Amino acid sequence: MVVKALRKRPRKSQESHLWKQFGYQESIHVIPHHMAPATGVGPRDPKKVVMVSRFDHVKGQIPVLSAFKEVLKIVPDAQLELYGRGADERKIRDEIDRLGLGDSVNIPGFTADASQVFSEAAVSIVASTYEGFCLSMGESMAAGCVPVSYGFKYGPQDLIRPGIDAMLVEPGNVKDLADSISFLLLNEEHRERMSQASTTIVDRISEARLIDEWRKILGY
Predict the structure, then answer these.
(1) Is the whole-model pTM more than 0.85?
(2) What is the pLDDT of residue 213?
(3) N or C: which end of the chain has fewer CB within 10 A?
(4) Dihedral angle computed from the Cα positions of residues 116, 6, 10 and 127, in that order, rounded to the nearest 10 degrees
(5) Nearest-CA neighbor of 53 among 124, 146, 155?
(6) In contact, 50 and 145? CB cutoff 8 Å
(7) Which domains does the chain have, with CATH numbers?
(8) pLDDT digits (tens, 9 = 90+) for 32-89
(9) d(Cα 34, Cα 146) in Å, to the nearest integer?
(10) Before 43, cis peptide (omega within 30)?
C-alpha cells in the first residue's frame, strides 16, 4: 500500500490512520508526490486572487465568497477568479449575486493550464474540507502564487511552511481566511518573499526524489 505525503508529522499521521483502519502493517510506505517546475509566464497581477478546483461543496467556494466580501472592505480593488466546473456552479453564481460581488468575482470556466493561471495571480485559496493530496496547491506554489489554505487532512501540512511560503488557516475560520488574504494583498514586499520561497517546492518534492524513494521500496 502506498500513501502520498511528504514530511514526518503528516506522514506519521496518515500512517496511524491507516493502522487504525487496517491494523499495523510494515508494508505501508509513504512517498511524496512530485512537483514539476511551473510553465506559466505571467504577468502577475498583485491584486488577483484565484481558486482552481471543481465546483463542489467539498472545495469550499461558498464560504470563500463570504471571506472575499470581507477582503473587499480592506482591499476594494481585489479581484477573485474561480476556475473550474461542476455541480455547484449555479449555487456559486447565485451566491455571487446575493453578496453583490459581480464586479469583483469572475468565473472564467475550466482551465487546462493551471500553471499559467497561477503565474498571473498573487494569491491562491484552498478551502477544501479534505483532500488526498492537494495537487493544485503544489502547482500554485511552483508558480510563485502564495496559497492561503485551511489546515485540512491531508496535504497543506505536507507542502507548506506557514508564514514562510504560505498562510495556514484553521478549517472553517472565514474571518482568518479573509484576514490572511488581505494581509498578503496589502504587503506586497513580504508576499514577494513568500512567493520566492514557495517556488522551492519543486526542489523539496522533485521527480528525482520520487524516483529514488520508489527505487528504495522496490529494492533497486
Answers:
(1) yes
(2) 82
(3) C
(4) 0
(5) 124
(6) yes
(7) 1-34 (no CATH), 46-202 (3.40.50.2000)
(8) 678 899 999 999 999 999 999 999 999 999 999 999 999 999 999 999 999 999 999 9
(9) 18
(10) yes
Q: Is 129 left (phi over 0), alpha (psi -120 to 50) or beta?
A: alpha
Q: What are the helix (H) ranges across the chain?
A: 8-22, 61-74, 89-98, 114-119, 135-142, 156-159, 174-186, 188-198, 201-204, 207-218
CB 104 within 8 A of CB 68: yes
Cell numbers representing residue 76 in the block:
476594494
Q: Nine-digit cell at 35? A: 512537483
Q: Which of 101, 106, 118 is nearest to 39 (CA)?
A: 118
CA distances from 152 to 29, 31, 42, 121 (A): 21, 19, 29, 23
